Amino acid sequence: MGKVRLLDSNTINKIAAGEVVERPASCIKELVENSIDAGANHIEVEIVNGGKTLMRVTDDGGGMSKEDSLLAIRRHATSKLSNVQDLLTISTLGFRGEAVPTIAAVSKFTLQTRRADSELGTKIQIEGGKFIDSHEVGCKIGTTVIVEDLFFNTPARLKFLKATSTEASKIHEYIVKLALSRPEISFKLINNNRPALSTPGNGKMIDVITGVYGTEISSSLIEINFSAEDFHLSGYIGKPNFLKNYRTWQTFIINGRIVNNRTISKALEESYRALIPKSGFPLAALKIEVPQNSIDVNVHPQKTELKFEDDNQIFKLVYRAVREAVSEKKSNAENHDLTEIATSPEVPKYEPLNLDEYFGKVADRKNFNVEKTREILNSEKNSVAADENAETAENVFVPNFDKVTPPEAFEDFQAAENFSDNNGEEEIIEPPPTENKSDIKISTENSTEKIEPPIKNPALKLQPIGQVNLCYIVAQSDSDLYIIDQHAAHERILFDRLCGYADKIPAQGLLIHRVLKFDERETLQIENNLELFKSLGFTLEPSGENEFRITEVPIDAADTDPEIMLREIISGLPEIDTDSEIDDERRADIARNIRQLVLATTACKAAIKAGQELNARQMQILLNDLSNTPNPHTCPHGRPTIIKFSAKDLSKMFHRT
Fold first, then answer.
1. pLDDT tens digits, residue range 238-287?
2. Residue 251, beta-bridge partner list
3. Inter-residue contact 414 to 403 (CB < 8 Å)
4. How many CA atoms lie within 13 A of 83 on its CB side?
5. Which end of the chain is more exposed for a tag (fewer CB within 10 A), N or C?
């Protein structure tokens, strides 16, 4: 007897279900797409227990006749295709004819549908792929599908489902993407008898975005509208300061179909290069229209992927469209309001101070006294100072009980003008002037420095306060607190300045030329890009075998060690395949990447370093320059330049709300 046998239809359906129905969200996706193809204007989705117990999809579409509904539960029965040629121009979301029968094969399935020209509708019940009943029923125009006890007959699949909250989140995520792809349709999601999502269905994508993600993000969006030949891209992208740690907020819609596509994802990432951190992802809701015959949607059972006829062309068009949108946005503003571009941090969860732990080394809390605590803390300070791996003891906060003042001394705090320190010297604290509030005075141990008023800038709302660890500038607005990374901020300023030079970057000749030796790979990289290096401010002349003489460096990096800077640049240059020809487009891409690498490295090496002390005037100038640079959000390597702690954030941290 032969070993090859035909599988029965029930087994075939379960195998197909493993490909099409991965989890409850897969069912919702297939059913809602069918509702969209049916011309629905309102779609309501209800789930219980993350969709594992119940899923219901109701629409007001065209509905089906009794004959069509009985055919729809059979595999490969569809109204979307008539012959193989239709696959080349398929415009509907569904076309395989697999979704309904495969879902019915692994659940308790009920279909209820009615056409507008029929007085009664049809109700069909299937359990685990077995037909149970079919009869006429009174119902509304449209279709309702109820899926209960998903995977009840395939327990191996059931146990691989995630927690209820995770499955519900996946469903919510996909409904959001469907709503973005079809803003003209009103979507409603009910989770465990509670409304979870509702969209207006007015055809405006911006209303869907703000309705889903919150109205406060509207100021962080950039509208995009780009056309080139048969390609059109529209939608919204997030500003570089509005990021998430995951790609959930990125939706790509190709000819009305939601897809995952690496080409578009890569083009989006490249468009934001040097604007956002490598670990961050911008919001994107992009609708792309291309000729239907230039894509193949029949490459994945769940229809979540497709192939382009020319991936390279799509990459370039998406990159150009997004890049132009971001560039246009930044060019429309002469300067930036740093209070708006600042990144907001995650507010830490409030944890009350454990006084028992804090005072744990004090033998008797009831007999607590200043002298005893001072002795303990001073011993800790000395142990920290002795630790070679620790920072200096001055950076460790230890309360100075020598300066403790009796409560009665603060009865009239506003009238206090001087306090006595432990050396018996007086520190004068002058009240802020009333006539000119920008005339600041900072008292030091030896002198009082008068700071000039900051440069007037209508977009600048920040006033520097000081430095933390000689690395971060602390500034304030009327009600919020800001921390600026001085190196990242100056690095961005220099990078944008270098990028702003149209042709050759100004260079400065070295008084003493440096002769450097390289290996063969580095030598080849330099020889192939001598003119490019020169245009970027580096003049290199061959001086021997694998040797080059540096005669000029960019003027903004004149104080930087040219050898360290150049070697770091060369170590990051892309490899060049000498065995194959490089077309003009590839050469242009290489040149563009080299240019960005050189400018980013030059800016990094020339920028203010962490540990460099700045006075108030220098800090104010840095903030002014950052507000006037085209891309103030991040440094060229993607690290944020400025972080905002709003008054609300501070209240949460101090548990005042």
1. 887 777 777 888 999 999 989 888 889 989 988 887 677 666 788 999 99
2. 285
3. no
4. 1
5. N
